[in-house]
Design a protein that fits this description.
single chain, 4 domains, alpha+beta, Hypothetical protein af1432, 11% strand, two-stranded antiparallel ribbon
Length: 466
């Protein structure tokens, strides 16, 4: 793309960034220059395809009331107004959201995400200095199509660099959440933090503890899905490596970070415990990456306590529960992740008998696709081996045979139900246990799922329910 560049106080260039018509209409109604800033500008200049749900952040040297009046004339509505920060959340007729912020300069109490003092300004460079990275501080004047680059962010985008808008120690000292954003943005964009950013983040890593756990967890999950943003290869692994390099991982997941440098058996593993865990995320599909990250979180604890990792799946499940409770993760996701961690070592040595394996497959059936994906990622992460994991092949072969036999995988698929069990003499409070026993019984041989046969079994074993 060819730019016409004007050398003034800072670099300006004329481009055409695709934006919604509503935003163009808003800019036309404004009697002042309205700028698009942040990720949408950065991603366009980096050559990324527009995100499915782009963030449209706009700003101007104008008070909220003037922006709201212009928005109303453009057919938009103000959903909420925050006068202390000069922020207005807007929505167009299609339901697309936009966030306007008045030019300002912020001061922070050390490490706290919310600014303690705000001063409105007409100086676009001061506004740029309140942001995090220079690549996010390029402004696009919507009406004229002019780029305004007060801090050299365009050069950083071309070099694929993340450089802070001020000395990194100051930037990370102001807002601990920026520690997570550094890793997440590096993952999403493929940009590399410069040495100053790494050192500044390392010096202030402990400030992450001052941030609300919900915000930290949101950033972590965005990092684990970072490849979905722009298709950057190995994006989540890249972001996790930044967390490790800056020491932020020690604060975020100290239980996992204990595995850094902790050697494993060389006949099974090429990597230490922590590197193996990060590589497991690299090989895992999106919906099991949290479990992949935590699957061996019990290993450092067990190795230090027992001298071996034999009980690491069970201990890891308990630690996973503690970690996700601490981070205030959604309960359903936390419960699922804990169970995946608990189950990931089942039949790792391929010694499980077929009858027991069949019962295991029925027991794990609701989670089976994710569990098999986790077991494959775990295997691949040991030696970067993408061939099918032997345990996964064994389980899939057994699963295919069970399906061909018509094995029931839930109580709803049994040839009898709760009413049948009660009619056969099972006390109502024991019906669930009785049906669960029948499900395991049928797992060993699908031909057993026959109504008369199961009713006879219920009557024969009634005595144990007294």
């Amino acid at each position: 793309m060819c730019y016409t560049v004007f050398m003034k106080k800072f670099t300006e260039a004329t481009v055409k960034i695709p934006i919604p018509d509503a935003l163009t209409a808003l800019a036309e109604e404004c009697a002042f220059p309205l700028y698009l800033v942040g990720g949408a500008v950065r991603d366009f200049l980096a050559g990324f395809s527009p995100a499915k749900k782009p963030d449209f952040d706009v700003c101007a040297d104008a008070p909220e009331d003037k922006l709201i009046s212009a928005a109303e004339r453009a057919g938009m509505r103000a959903k909420s107004v925050y006068r202390r920060t000069g922020t207005v959340k807007l929505e167009d007729t299609n339901g697309t959201g936009y966030e306007f912020t008045r030019f300002r300069s912020d001061k922070y109490v050390r490490g706290i995400h919310t600014p303690s003092e705000i001063e409105f300004t007409s100086d676009i460079e001061r506004d740029a200095r309140r942001r995090d990275f220079c690549a996010n501080a390029v402004y696009y004047e919507i009406k004229t199509g002019t780029l305004c680059d007060p801090l050299g962010g365009i050069g950083d985008i071309k070099r694929k660099t993340l450089r802070t808008v001020a000395p990194a120690k100051k930037v990370f000292g102001e807002d601990g959440l920026r520690l997570m954003r550094l890793a997440r943005l590096s993952a999403e964009t493929g940009f590399a933090p410069n040495a100053d950013a790494i050192e500044g983040a390392r010096e202030h890593a402990l400030l992450l503890a001052d941030i609300a756990p919900e915000r930290i967890f949101t950033e972590l999950m965005l990092l684990l899905r970072a490849d979905k943003r722009h298709g950057v290869a190995d994006a989540p692994y890249r972001g996790l490596c930044v967390l490790r390099e800056t020491g932020v991982l020690n604060v975020l997941l100290p239980e996992l970070a204990l595995g850094d440098g902790m050697a494993q058996r060389s006949d099974f593993h090429d990597y230490d415990v922590l590197e193996h865990s990060l590589r497991c995320v690299k090989y895992a599909p999106e919906d099991v990456r949290l479990a992949a990250l935590l699957h061996d979180v019990g290993k450092p604890f067990c190795i230090k306590r027992d001298g071996n990792a034999h009980a690491h799946a069970e201990e890891g499940a308990l630690l996973t529960r503690e970690i996700l409770t601490r981070l205030k993760a959604p309960k359903r996701l936390a419960t699922e992740t804990e169970e995946l961690v608990r189950l990931h070592m089942r039949d790792y040595n391929l010694q499980m008998r077929e009858s027991k394996l069949r019962r295991e497959l029925v027991h794990c059936y609701p989670l089976l696709p994710k569990l098999l994906a986790l077991k494959q990622a775990d295997y691949s992460a040991c030696k970067d081996d993408l061939s099918p994991a032997p345990a996964v092949l064994k389980w899939q072969t057994a699963l295919t045979a069970m399906r061909e036999e018509g094995v029931p995988f839930s109580q709803r698929e049994l040839a009898v139900n709760g009413n049948d069990a009660i009619a056969a003499g099972v006390p109502p409070q024991k019906v669930g246990n009785a049906l669960a026993e029948l499900l395991g019984y049928c797992a060993e041989n699908g031909k057993r799922n026959e109504r008369g046969h199961l009713l006879s079994r219920l009557k024969k074993h009634y005595g144990k329910y007294d």
